[in-house]
Amino acid sequence: MFLKHLIDAAEESELAGTEWLSIAISEWRKVACISSFGLSLDACWSAEQRDEFLALAEKGCAALAMRESIPMREVMGWSFGDDLRMDTRGTSEVRTGPVVELGRAVIALVRDELPAAPSGEAWLFGAPEGRTTLQLRPEWDGKW
Predict the structure, then answer these.
(1) Distance from CA of residue 47 to its chain's centroid?
(2) What letter does residue 125 receive in the DSSP assignment?
(3) Contacts of 131 (CB under 8 A, 6+ apart)
(4) pLDDT value at position 144?
(5) Does the pTM of the predicted model rise above 0.85?
(6) 110 and 41 in contact (C-beta within 8 Å)?
(7) What distance in Å separates the CA atoms of residue 95 and residue 29, rounded to the nearest whole number?
(8) Between the CA of residue 97 and those of 7, 51, 101, 133, what are the distances in Å?
(9) Is the Cβ–Cβ distance between 87 and 35 less than 8 Å?
């Protein structure tokens, strides 16, 4: 949900036709539909490109925050190209609050402002109940 709104903001941006953003949008489309992919930012982006990403992410969050929920019927109509669509996993709607919280966590992470999770735990954002933590195994070395 967050990526769909990020993509919308990017496609409406003045930079939509630039090479770096076109590549990013293409990657975000895949990540939005194929859950085994993870969102990552290009390490070669300039400071200006990162700032633009942050502005687009803010716009995406703002658009999401305007709605309390999104019905799955609407989500099933979203196309990400090449007939890629999001998996609705049988739910009837998605509450946007946790998704906005996830988007804002991504923004905080990119800005290096995301607070550390409690000791022995990792943050989990985007769950229906909102931000929570996951217990880490004692042998976890801190690397994903």
Answers:
(1) 20
(2) -
(3) 98, 101, 105, 123, 124, 125
(4) 58
(5) no
(6) yes
(7) 21
(8) 19, 24, 6, 17
(9) yes
Angle at 98 between CA 92 and CA 104, to 5 degrees: 140
More confident: 76 or 63: 63
Q: What is the amino acid identity at position 60?
A: G
Query: pLDDT of 44-53, one tens digit each?
Result: 999 999 999 9
Convert the pLDDT of each residue in 101-118 to its tens digit: 999 999 999 999 999 999
Q: Helix, strand, coil shares of the chain as percentages rounded to 5? A: 45, 10, 45
Task: Read off φ and ψ for residue 39, nearest 5 degrees.
Answer: -75, 125
Distances (CA, A) of 117 to 111, 124, 133, 135: 16, 10, 7, 10
